[in-house]
Here is the input.
Amino acid sequence: MVTLDNVAQGRDVKFSLPEALRIKQEARASRAAKPIAEKLRTLERLRERARTIKAARVPASAIRPPK
Amino acid sequence: MTLALKDVFRGLEAARRDGVIDRYAIGGAVAATFYVEPSATEDVDVFATFRGQPASGLLTLEPIYRYFVAQGARIEGEHLVIADWPVQFLPATTPLVDQALEEALRFEVEGQPVSVFAQEHLAAIALETGRLKDKVRLAQLLQSATFNRARFDDLVNRHHLEDKWSRWTTLLKDET
Here is the structure.
């Protein structure tokens, strides 16, 4: 099983794609099942983060090729 | 922690009460958040029928803009910015959207009522619209535990979306 603990301890780990997909699907279902107000707040945080990233982006015109 | 979207919902309810819009429902990514995990979006899509909407489909959003600006909103391009959220008003231009508006669900978010498209309608509209982000949303909704597949299939047939559905399922044959 791939866990941070197993990797940190240097144990042999086995990666199973079906298992990884199952865990991912469960995490997605768990996020979907949260109360609506909580999900809408997450949506607002995601939007805020996207705006911050967008504002910090260097415009292509400011990038000069190395001489 | 405050929730700015509640102010948007409050404004829409007031506009309906004041007769500026007849019917409305939230669509797009914000509506999908009521059923599946949240995914980033920059604006709120509001589908609506308007008072005195002409049969020709040609209509002006001017009365609704004027109403919301009087309430403190500002105009930015094609959006009305309400409570810092860009809101886009979209008229019902297809029979599917018309039906979705007719059968929209009522939710309460921390005491604030709001009309939202049912998830099967959201999925059918995503199929009808067909952009990449709509296809991703459709995939998410189909995996929702509460999704009513029979209802969705009925919408696909009723609104003649069989070809689009067939192409979409072929595209994702190994995933569905």
About this structure: The two ends of chain A are 49 Å apart (CA to CA). The first helix of chain A runs from residue 4 to 8. Residues 4-59 of chain A form one domain. Residues 7 and 36 of chain A are 36 Å apart (CA to CA).
